[in-house]
Amino acid sequence: PQDPEKAKTFVHAFLKRSMPKMSEEAIQEMLTRKAVVLEHYPKKKTKQKRKKTKGFTAKQRRELRLFEIEPEQQRYALFLPLHELWKQYIRDLCHGLKADAQPHMIQSKLLKADLHGAIVTVTKSKCPSYVGITGIILQEFKHVFKIITKEDKLKVVPKLNNVFSLELDGFISYIYGSKFLLRASERSAKKFKLKGTIDL
């Protein structure tokens, strides 16, 4: 068996080393109780601030010409596979576009659908030069559609004061551009209200 005095001396030294903030009297008081609760003083860790990754500004995107389509890529035939993908996407979205489908249900889904790859035609416009333009939508912005025509010409058509039509499997849907002034990402989350037709 250990010598009681040696054990007492060891415990006293251990407590003094482990708890330097305690006074001699406090250590002696703990020893008389014969119960020791050791305290732990963890080192404070400095929190590292997370750096937020910033994307490009609108000015930087314009300078880098991120949204511009190169002239050699402005060919209608190049984007026909995109149109085929879009048709399959709409069929899946509308559960097959069956003959007994309710038109207003299809219309409500088309309002929120991605239109990149859709073939649209300008049917009405306050500017007569836009009427009759038909092509595949390559890019949709808040105020304009960029459309590639069969003549391999890239047309920038404003949404405002224009009515567009798109046809798929016998269903013809009309888009009133003046009520469509939203980005594609914003449009998917917007609740559209049923309104009457708009005269141009």
UniProtKB/TrEMBL annotation:
Gene3D superfamilies with a match to the protein in the record: Ribonuclease P/MRP, subunit p29
Domain of life, source organism: Eukaryota
Main location: nucleus
Cellular component terms per the entry's GO annotation: nucleolus; ribonuclease MRP complex; ribonuclease P complex
GO MF term set: ribonuclease P RNA binding
Intracellular or extracellular location(s): Nucleus, Nucleolus
InterPro entries the record matches: RNase_P/MRP_Rpp29-subunit, RNase_P/MRP_Rpp29_sf, Rof/RNase_P-like, Rpp29/RNP1
Xref: SMART domains: POP4 (SM00538)
Function, in words: Component of ribonuclease P, a ribonucleoprotein complex that generates mature tRNA molecules by cleaving their 5'-ends.
Protein name: Ribonuclease P protein subunit p29
Naturally occurring in which organism (per UniProt): Cisticola juncidis
